[in-house]
Design goal:
This is Glycosyltransferase. By secondary structure, this protein is of the alpha/beta class. α12 links the parallel β10 and β11. The strands form four sheets. It has a seven-stranded parallel sheet, sandwiched between helices. Strands 12-11-10-13-14-15 form a six-stranded parallel sheet, with helices on both faces. α6 crosses α9, α6 packs across α16 and α12 packs across α17. It is built from 19 helices and 17 strands. The chain folds into two domains: about 260 residues, Glycogen Phosphorylase B (Rossmann fold), CATH 3.40.50; about 200 residues, Glycogen Phosphorylase B (Rossmann fold, 3-Layer(aba) Sandwich), CATH 3.40.50.2000.
């Protein structure tokens, strides 16, 4: 496919790390294969973050700042993303994102004037559905990009659009429009903000119109591989009734290499809780598949009582572990971690590394010693783990994580759930029992690891190009560009 260089794509991510980084990865993926100019438009603080994260990015990738005054939306001063934002204020940031409409429209107008033509397309976050209005009035098209998987995204959209849990049975189960009735969902898989939603609440008032707008997009890009999620892709396609290009997972090349390098990527803009080198040296001292890795992502944490139970269960298991830990729910996530949040003497007695702030997750998951990942089941963490054949112990906390966990358990067989949410009761005995299911070398543990390795091979195949043979995700990216060019 011959492509002219003058084409320009404008990207509009939502202001959260789990969205910004996949958008940057998508921009890199496109510019590696096509001579397009790409502009990523977001707020000043997030532009600075992306510039740091993309210190060696392609010269074809540019950044444009969109002004946002968080104080106007009842947010703390200089708040421009979800990082360290209390849970009760995140809905304010969602509503604040709609105020980017006018400056984004002005940006598209300026780009059109400078280039002498409108952008080839806008690629907007599913939460920025209003970008469709900008695209239509600017003689271009909008393509929605979900940074999650097909199954989780379809479930998330259907949940918010239909609020089916309001008609749940006495046992808490309910059918989800768009999904087979043979796959019931449960109210325990929903975050409390969704459980309490009635259509007039602030969350519904944001999500329902933005999802409806996104469903009018020209098509969808999805950060998954078609072979990973056959059911999810079928449901997602039927729900959106638009073309879907599965162009993921969007992983660093280091995760796809057969012999990955020791340090996979720069961890931009964050104070490390431990250096990758020290972490790798610690892992080197442990046998294959012996270490349990625990992390709930950059945005999530568990309650104080759950944290105590998790710590005690880890200790009872006798397994070595790495735990990327944050203050429990209800405390400032950026505050110094207090010893009283863990059992007395826990760190001294156990065979683990308790890492404040972030841990070098990619390097940990790539290491032969890592045997299981206790995860919130955010999509980025899911695909990073499965790309390395590491089975998952699920503890979904928010967003579409409960639906991801449902798929990982029921469709893929690569996960067991430990519990759900921050309100559940869990004991040290529960923690130890679930860890042993995955780590004891029994038939279920062996089968889960086998299936995780198989999914990892599917991911690798989808993103591999050998001669004229392209993996499905690379071919999907070509097909996406061809579809855009056919509109010209």
């Amino acid at each position: 496919m011959r492509v002219a260089e003058e084409h320009h794509i404008v990207m509009l991510p939502f202001m959260a790390q789990g969205h910004l980084i996949p958008f940057l990865a998508l921009a890199n993926q496109i510019t590696q294969r096509f001579p397009f100019k790409i502009t990523i438009a977001t707020t000043p603080l997030n532009v600075r973050y992306l510039r740091t994260a993309a210190s060696n990015h392609s010269p074809q990738i540019h950044f444009s700042e969109l002004p946002l005054n968080g104080v106007d939306h009842a947010l703390p001063p200089e708040t421009e993303n979800t990082e360290a934002l209390p849970l009760n204020l995140i809905v304010n940031l969602f509503h604040a994102s709609a105020s980017l409409h006018a400056p984004f429209r002005a940006l598209i107008r300026d780009i059109t004037a400078t280039d002498g033509a409108p952008p080839l397309c806008i690629i907007s976050d599913v939460f920025m559905g209003w970008a469709n209005e900008v695209a239509r009035s600017s003689a271009t098209v909008n393509v929605a990009f979900t940074t999650g998987g097909a199954y989780g995204t379809a479930a998330y959209m259907s949940m918010w659009q239909n609020l089916p849990h309001r008609s749940a049975a006495a046992d808490g189960s309910f059918s989800l429009p768009g999904f087979p009735n043979s796959l019931p969902f449960h109210v325990s898989q929903l975050h409390r903000f969704l459980r309490d939603a009635d259509g007039s609440d602030p969350w519904s008032r944001f999500f329902q119109p933005q999802i409806a707008h996104s469903l009018t997009s020209f098509g969808w890009l999805c950060a998954t591989a078609a072979e990973m999620e056959p059911l999810g892709l079928d449901v997602f396609s039927n729900y959106t009734k638009r073309p879907i290009w599965c162009i993921g997972p969007l992983l660093p090349q280091g995760l796809l290499d057969r012999k990955p390098s020791r340090v996979i990527r720069k961890h931009a803009g964050r104070e490390p809780g431990i250096s990758p080198e020290r972490c790798l040296a610690w892992l080197d001292s442990h046998p294959e598949y012996s270490v349990v890795y625990v992390s709930f992502g950059s945005q999530n944490t568990v309650s104080q009582s759950q944290m105590m139970a998790l710590a005690s269960g880890l200790e009872d298991s006798g397994r070595p572990f790495i735990w990327a830990i944050r203050p429990p729910a209800g405390f400032n996530s950026r505050a110094e971690f207090k010893p009283e949040w863990l059992p007395d003497g826990f760190e001294e007695r156990t065979q683990g590394l308790v890492v404040r702030s972030w841990a070098p997750q990619l390097e940990i998951l790539c290491h032969r010693s890592t045997g299981a990942f206790v995860s919130h089941c955010g999509w980025n963490s899911v695909v990073e783990s499965l790309s390395q054949g590491v089975p998952i112990i699920g503890w979904p906390l928010a967003a579409e994580q409960g639906y991801n966990a449902k798929m990982l358990v029921g469709e893929m067989g690569v996960c067991v759930e430990m519990t759900r949410g921050v309100e559940s009761q869990i004991s040290r005995e529960d923690v130890k029992r679930v860890i042993e299911v995955v780590m004891d070398g029994g038939s279920k543990a062996v089968e889960m690891r086998k299936k995780a390795v198989e999914v990892g091979e599917l991911i690798r195949a989808a993103l591999t190009e050998e001669g004229r043979r392209k993996g499905s995700s690379l071919k999907a990216l070509d097909d996406f560009v061809e579809a855009l060019l056919s509109l010209k």
